[in-house]
Amino acid sequence: MAKKDVKITINGKEYSSKVEPRMLLVHFIRDVAGLTGTHVGCDTSNCGACTVVLDGKAVKSCTVLAVQADNRRITTVEGLAKNGKLHPVQEAFVDKHGLQCGYCTSGMLMTSFWLLQKNRNPTEKEIREALSGNLCRCTGYENIVKAVKEAAKEISAEQNKDLVREEPIEA
Amino acid sequence: MKSEEKFVRGMGQFVDDIKFPNMLYMSVVRSDYARARLLRVKGGINAKTFNHPLAAVGEGAMSGFERAQHMVFASEFVNYLGEPIAAVYSDDPYKSEDLISSVEVDYDPLKPVIDPEKALTSEPIHSGFKNNIISEKWLGKDFKNDSPIVLEDSFRNRNG
Prior knowledge:
A: DNA polymerase, domain 1, B: 3 helices
């Protein structure tokens, strides 16, 4: 099969490779870029373990071809922490025990991260709806939903702090 | 690092993350039928070249169970849809999937018994078995059913 040149920016770093047109994005991420935090759970876009954010949208990377992501930007679970500091959504999953075996966690985090980017203050129903494409066989979802709620609070609090810093009250 | 932190950073290690030098990917040729006689299998590693039972299938799960021997690859018959018949290997997962089509399998399709009650009186699936009963429990003559209310029902297990 004739290979195609693709260039994909993952977590701010550019990866170029010649790949078969049939190569799935998740295999590009795992095997070409070597980022194994993105998992293949079902291969059929049911489970959501492979969820990544592609140009601001949460997608299941087992259902996107690497060639479709050419010249586009992706965030994976490895790109959430900044300078070693966990993103609030990661902190909250640890605090609220939103995981056990950890296999679905990367996908859960990426869907939650995407949700909180477009909706700063989601209701429980909105959280459950957003995560309906991500399956977890350990937690029963309760702690995952709690974690997303806590992350939303934490992000709002941080933004309020930033506002205070940006506009200090003059004495 | 707390174990949970490792997972939220995407640093967990799962089977799919293990890499060895010269590692191969395996694809499995699986039965297209729920019940069929296997007339011919050509290609890949199959029951002719690798005729071994699985080391353990539910061993020790419960006492009083008949033990059926599960072979790695089916020979003579396939007993369920997706039963492994042969395996092919490549250093590339996509190429190993391609190799599935290099394996030739001829079937003589048979009618599967899919009703558990009919299976009680049907020809045994596993060779060496007298029937298709894996476990039969009788609570014994000391079991008293003199309770004020006695409920009787049949139960079906979804995973059965």
